[in-house]
Amino acid sequence: MEYWKNGILEEWNNEVGDLWSEDRNCNNQMKFINWKEKMEFYFILVEPSVPGNIGAAARAIKIMGFSHLWLVKPCDHLEKDAVKMAHGSTDILENARVFKSFEQALGEVDFIIGTSAKKRTAHEDYLDCSGLTEIIIKKGKTINSAGIVFGREESGLTNYELKQCDIVTHIPMIAEYPSANLAQAVMIYAYILSGLVIRRKEVEKNLRNVAEFNEIKKRIKSILADVGIDKNPTLNNRIMERLALLDEDDMHLLYSFTNKYEEKHKK
Q: What is d(CA 82, CA 67) in angstroms, rounded to the nearest whole number?
């Protein structure tokens, strides 16, 4: 199993059973889970307008051990300033995926983490980014991937875009102004998430497959529509927002409930 030690990704072999986690005091709390396959993290920049910021973001995610940079309607991400700022990380730039729309990018990720410099009306919960590792660990095997979405340099993400995210997070600041720029924000989130090296344990053939987070969301949306709650956007959105914070055990209970609900309503 891979793990971080003094900023260096190393190999570590462990024969512990189902799940294993360890806390370490190294500026931020680092946690590790003994799963078989590495979970994927995608850093998604929405309409970045400064090539240098894209290059600096690419460098930030690479030095923290990540490799996936996704761009939604970006400026020229291979422009000379981008390449210059991505020093040693041009492979991240060259392999960056470019999407024509915000929705297209989100469609391939299980768990969407929005970022915002200030609290907006799109979500009631406005979470400190330092708690991301704990949230993701509690999701367990219900998610295989997470996308961290960063907005435009001048205006951030729109309320519509934030509503498409499962949770909205922020970087706590001592000073109210100025806020961190795009590349700095990417660096901070990459540093926080670098404490997670996640591998998924093989599921034995005689065990049922665990419920995926996206499947739970689809089922709950359907149930809310069945009982008419979808006609109350405030309550509907709040339920979906809190759903995103449930841990793996709660997800499994909810999955069992939705099974019983669907069985009863199919009769």
A: 16
Q: 0.85 cut: is pTM over it?
A: no
- DSSP string spanning 26-76? ESEEEEEE--SSBPEEEEEEES---HHHHHHHHHHHHHTT--EEEEES-S-
Angle 6-60-133 from CA coordinates, rounded to 5°: 65
Distance CA 129, CA 189 (A): 7
Query: What is the reported pLDDT for 89?
Result: 94
**Per-residue pLDDT tens for 137-177?**
888 888 889 999 999 999 899 999 999 999 999 998 888 77
> What does the pLDDT read at residue 17?
30
φ, ψ of residue 198 in degrees (nearest 5) = -110, 130
| Domains present along the chain, CATH in parentheses | 34-198 (3.40.1280.10), 213-266 (no CATH)
Helix, strand, or coil here: 195? Answer: coil
